[in-house]
Specification:
This protein is of the alpha/beta class and 140 residues long. Among the domains are: 37 residues; 60 residues, 5'-nuclease (Rossmann fold), CATH 3.40.50.1010. A five-stranded parallel β-sheet has the order 3-2-1-4-5. The protein starts with a strand and ends with a strand.
Length: 140
């Protein structure tokens, strides 16, 4: 089974809290081939860049830089699936079908569908609307 982490699952791994430790244990059970995707990587890094830009340069940025570093280190533990032509074609179809679902979510869904992978996410409300997409929440 191939699974792809959404941003919220990656965030739990970065925070290293109880949910992150449980998720890591499940990964280590080896029941799935675990990936993330370039769109999740983009979302994660954009979030930390936004925080860095809001903070005064210098000491006020220490925590944000630490979290950015931890996020990058976490992301690099997994193979990152790209947004290729097949995913882009799937995205175009999904955009027409689901105009109210967020662009980034549809790109993530498209990548998962193109790779026949299950998406691991807390955001089941939006993603269950996507036809052909398998979703699970490993943080429950």
């Amino acid at each position: 089974m191939m699974v792809v982490f959404d941003t919220n699952h990656i965030r739990e791994l970065v925070e290293e809290g109880l949910l992150g430790r449980r998720l890591l244990a499940r990964i280590n059970e080896g029941q799935a081939d675990v990936f993330t995707c370039i769109v999740v990587t983009e979302e994660s890094i954009r979030g930390w860049f936004a925080l860095l830009n809001r903070e005064k340069p210098g000491h006020d940025q220490l925590d944000a830089y630490l979290e950015l570093k931890r996020s990058i280190e976490t992301l690099t533990h997994f193979d990152i699936l790209g947004f290729d032509r097949e995913a882009a074609d799937e995205f175009v179809k999904l955009r027409k079908l689901l105009p109210r679902v967020g662009t980034m979510d549809l790109k993530i869904a498209a990548i998962c569908i193109a790779h026949d992978a299950t998406l691991l996410t807390r955001n089941l409300v939006d993603f269950v609307q996507v036809p052909g997409l398998r979703v699970e929440n490993w943080l429950e």
